[in-house]
Amino acid sequence: MYELEEKSYLYLLAIIPLLVLLFLYVQYWKRKKQREFGDLELVKKLSPQRSVFKPALKFALLIIALVGLILGLVNPKIGTKMETIKREGIDIVFAMDVSKSMLAEDVAPNRLEKSKQIVSQIINQLGNDRIGIVAYAGSAFPVLPITTDYSVSKMFLQSMNTSIVSSQGTSLEDAIKLSSTYFDKGNKTSKLLILISDGEDHSEGANDAAAEANKNGMKIITIGVGTEKGGPIPIKQNGVVQSFKRDNNNEVVITKLNQESLKEIAKATKGGYVNGNSTKEVLAYVKKALDNIQKTEFEATQMADFESQFQWFLGIAFALLFLDIFFLDRKTNWITKLNLFNEKES
Predict the structure, then answer these.
(1) pLDDT at position 47, please?
(2) Per-residue pLDDT for 338 more than 60?
């Protein structure tokens, strides 16, 4: 198993084909100028010790060295074994509202993208907690089971959109019920559901589901995203707004933040509600809440002993650059004597 510590440096590899094209063009240009100067065979006789092969070899060494330097910056790491380690933390499930109303742009860039930013920032400040993700609209859909892999969690988070759940609407009840199944009722690990929504619930029973979750030891923090003034739901094509969603009376639908429903759900589990329009305030609120929740020791299996391998790539790169100093453009005498290409001596 391996991992790449600084993947962003891989983009530097795009320089390689550009350098190859530049080298080929320079060789073509040199050959063209030689033809203009005179017959190629006569020109070769004017510099009999000039090697045709050496420039290409020197360039190849430089390219390999450059690749080595880039891979050294990337710092590949190799894991040698799997091991079970003990951690202290809690189990957290993020329930994300992906209904069409979350496309409203009364908060920038829109409610859904704002929700993703909030969850991503919360994950950044977590330590040893296990996390899972649920998406919901008219029904709930499991996106990611409980895991300690935060990088994978962020990848799934960013891929979420309003098409991930086919049935539209906002069923907070289904979101709570599905999230409850993520937690193992048999262990004593603290259970927290962070529910992000605009609160426009089109189903009944959310409060009852929250009360049942409370019996099972779950605490719910709700985060409201949107404004009470609200906004229309844009219909876009290729990123450009074409129109806005309309109701059966052909009136533009205005979706508004319903804080009361979210506050009631949080109150049923002795949790709390926070307005999500200020990411800074949300992070401070969640951090304070997490500090007050008892941490439990649990076991997690992960790849251990990841060792950096950058030194090998840098070593090869510097060795090739050092070797390049001794490669001159003239022919090597002992190779010339081998006459590998059966060339006639002039």
Answers:
(1) 60
(2) no
Which DSSP state fits 238?
T
Q: What local confidence, expressed as pLDDT, does residue 341 receive?
A: 45
* Helices 54-74 + 310-324 axis angle, to 10: 160
pLDDT of residue 329: 61
Q: What is the DSSP string of 276-314?
A: TT-HHHHHHHHHHHHHTSPPEEEEEEEEE--EE-HHHHH
What pLDDT does residue 83 have? Answer: 60
d(CA 264, CA 262): 5
Name the one residue in this structure whose structure tokens are 């799997």.
Answer: 82
Residues 80, 307 contacting (CB under 8 angstroms): yes
Q: How many residues does the chain have?
A: 346
Q: Are 211 and 203 in contact (CB under 8 A)?
A: no
CB neighbour list of residue 317: distance below 8 Å, 6 or more residues apart? 64, 65, 66, 67, 68, 69, 72
String of DSSP letters for 172-197: HHHHHHHHHTTS-TTS---EEEEEEE
- Helix locations, the chain, DSSP H: 15-37, 40-46, 54-74, 111-124, 150-158, 172-180, 206-215, 259-268, 279-291, 310-324, 333-338
